[in-house]
Amino acid sequence: LHSRVSAGSDIETMMQDEPVPPATDRPGEGGATGGAARRQAARSAAAVPASRGSGIASTAGADTASAPDRSRSQPQPRGSGGPSVGPTTLVGKVLLFLTIILRIVLYPLRRVAQMLFPPKEFDGVAVPGVSDRAAGAFASMFRRTYALRGVVAGGRGNTEGGGRVSNDGGPPFGSTGFRSTIDAIADAAPVSPLMLVYLHSPLHRDAGQFAEATLCDRSVSGYLQGEDLIRCFGASIHTADGAQAADLLGAGSYPYIALLQVKGGGGSGARGRARGGGNATVEMLLKMEGRALGGLNPNQFLVYIQTCVRAHRATLAEAEARRLQREEEATLREEQDREYREALEADRRREAERRAEEDRVADEERRRKEVEREAEQAKAQKIEDALMKMGEEPPHKPGQTTRLRLTLPSGKRLDRRFQSGDFVGAIRAFLVVHFHENGIPIENFSLSTNYPRKTYEDDGITLQEAGLCPQAVLMVHDLDA
């Protein structure tokens, strides 16, 4: 509802007079189910104040019959179906239209201005090489116009101590543009020199005096040429590169000197900082301009520069010390990691050797037990075979038995009767059983007689054939002794 009413009866009457469209799920057919539900909820909420304000019953049928035509006199609400144009949109469209008209009208003037005032040689910093040519031209003009009044100690072209000495005298201004110089210094990290920026205003009354009396002074120019932590950049503000540098550095008066520290990587701009080329960040360490700069003598000017250079040198030394410490820590960590890996590898080798030794010992123990088991099995089989061959001792029967005396290696004598038809192997079987039952450690032995000297190695002959009947004495010899 978009109409404003004050009485509760008017609210209820308006709610009742408004036709409720049937519920539907398809858009465009009398509204959505949610609209009907919201109107029904609003009708229910308006029933209470309506009954309190005017005493009208809250029955929907009675209210509808009492005022059938009031809804016609109510103003129609503005629905959301039609497009509405706000004042902001209208103003924006008007401004866009005016901008297009102005561009069309001013285009001929722009073309005429370009023909009357064509771009100069050093205009347009976006043109490749313009900034570098402007810097080179300024360096040549400065040497030619403000010549060094003295000669740097060490002579023309001297580079003793690793410094840079200008051939023509004066500060060693480079032949690269502002952003190119910043990029070159940023690439020289971590030992990045400071950037001395001199902005020259040819029409300023103090510019020539400062350039000749201070910058071209023997001590100042000699220091700037010999100091390896200073990179000099000079530009005229009448060139595009110089004007851009003045705008970035916030130059307000001339002559202008700034000492900048170039740092690699991005960073948010702040007061005393300017964004350089690429990803370099430029921090302003010293700024001198106008009459305050012109009132300094060369010694005072040099003190300011040397103070900043000493601080920068200390900062670089501290950064180098931190870098060396980080490298040392990294080397130490690498050595510790290497020693740890070597120790771990040694532990692995020892563990592998220990396991191999354990496997070898276990294998030998298994083979030994297997040999012992086979030996025990062979011994048991031997005893069993011996018992079968030996048989029982027969009673004495003349002509059928023989009596043998067996003399052991220990001197002990054994007497036993055998059948005359028994084989020599029966004697050997008897001894095997005797040794086993009495725990005598004799495995291999031989049988022989002293007289006549004869050894019985063939177990397949009978005692009768061996000449051991009716009695004989045999010597038992331990072959393993």
UniProtKB/TrEMBL annotation:
One of its GO terms (cellular component) is endoplasmic reticulum. This is UBX domain-containing protein. SMART domains: UBX. One of its GO terms (biological process) is ERAD pathway. Residues 1-86, 345-379 are annotated as: Disordered. Residues 35-55 have a biased composition (Low complexity). Pfam families: UBX. PANTHER family: FAS-ASSOCIATED FACTOR 2, FAS-ASSOCIATED PROTEIN. InterPro entries: Ubiquitin-like_domsf, UBX_dom, UBX_domain-protein. Gene3D superfamilies: Glutaredoxin (3.40.30.10), Phosphatidylinositol 3-kinase Catalytic Subunit, Chain A, domain 1 (3.10.20.90). Residues 397-476 form the UBX domain. GO terms for molecular function: ubiquitin binding.
